[in-house]
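B., you asked whether I could sanity-check this one before it goes into the benchmark set. Here's the sequence:
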Amino acid sequence: MASAARGSARLVRREGGRRHQVKVRLSEEEYAAVGARAAAARVSVPRLLVEAALAGDAVTASERRALISELLAARRMVAAMGGNLNQLARMANTAGQVRPEVTAAAEAAQRAADRLAAAAAAVEALTRLRSAG
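And here's what the prediction gave me:
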């Protein structure tokens, strides 16, 4: 059970094991889509299919964990960018000129803000899915 709390790729052991096996046939397009979704959630295709089936129309637990991880990483990145921009602004104010690094830092901060906005939009979509279900 500890592995499930950590978000590892292994399923929690069940008493008596899992005796039933299901074979699923997919088209190339379906396989690519399912494989991409599993890779994004960092789980196997079979685990994604089981979680999706048991979750109904909701997003799987693995996808939620991946989404939360992405949101936290984006928050850390934006905080670091803010510190860097403050240092560059202080240098620009002291020297009376803007160094080339300021443009690169501002662009990186914009990318981080875009990533954070995308993660927030995904969380909002998840919230709507859960409230609709």
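One thing to flag: The CA atoms of residues 3 and 43 lie 13 Å apart. Otherwise nothing jumped out at me.
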